[in-house]
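In the current project phase, the collection of sequences with tokenised folds has grown. A representative record is quoted in full directly below:
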Amino acid sequence: MKRFDYLTPVGLLLGIFILAAGVISGAGLSGFYSFIDVTSFLIVTGGLCAAVFISFSPKDLKRAPAVLKQAFISEDDDIRDLVKTFVNLSEQARKQGLLSLDANIHEMKDPFLKKGLLLAIDGWDEETIRNVMNSEIAAMEERHRKGRRIFEKAGEFAPAWGMIGTLVGLVLMLKNLNKPETLGPNMAVALLTTLYGSL
């Protein structure tokens, strides 16, 4: 059964709150704004998008919102209910024959189990059913793996773009050593891109 996983947003909000509280306690509410830099943000997000676009096909990227949605949903499969369902189905098949299971198809909510039951009702042999179901599992795992890889790769790319932004900020800073007023802003770009990339 799918249900909303409230711990994921709670964890995200708690992390943001702790970070904001740490910044405000150290720099004050007015100092909080010094941690906001549009240039740093654009370097990290723009570079991250570019890297993801290069690494994945449009078809893979279209699946990203659905994969992200899954991070906020948890599935609770009650094994006891599943065992009970299979025991009932096997008893019914033994007493009334395989074709009697056709009446139970509408009760099956899981499309994977429904497909297996349909194959059994249609009279496919055990080996064929096993092969078809294993192929279905392999295809499902591959779809999930591809969707997950987008976010895993984004997690790998972001710190790298943070470091690139840091290097940009350091180059700007070193080129303008004769202008002391530019050292602070350029150093901020350098450090904030690392912070944004890590986040």
Observations:
- The two ends are 32 Å apart (CA to CA).
